[in-house]
Specification:
6 strands, four-stranded antiparallel β-sheet, 1 helix
């Protein structure tokens, strides 16, 4: 997991307007798993903050950013499996659904 200033950093971020998806990598004993946090950015005075709460009009962007995060994770998993196969390493595969 990437770190910046001692804090964990997402391996990838996607943003559509005020909606952001951060993709986090978690190493397990068997393989690498990814989790996603979705947040809405807003400005409080001069400072940018984020919230897990979204409004009705944000929902289409939440769906879009979630879909893009899903696609990125599957592409990354495929790339990792291909690299492992080239290196002669065997990894447990994700369920086919």
């Amino acid at each position: 997991m990437a770190q910046q200033n001692g804090k964990a950093k997402p391996v990838h971020e996607l943003r559509f307007g005020r909606i952001r998806a951060a993709i986090w990598e978690n190493e397990t004993q068997n393989d690498t798993r990814h989790n996603v946090t979705i947040s809405r950015l807003y400005k409080d005075g001069e400072q940018w903050k984020d919230s897990a709460s979204v409004g009705r009009d944000d929902l289409p962007l939440v769906a879009k950013v979630a879909d893009e995060a899903h696609s990125w994770i599957f592409a990354e998993s495929q790339r990792t499996r291909q690299q492992a196969a080239q290196n002669g390493s065997s990894q447990q595969q994700d369920a086919p659904f």
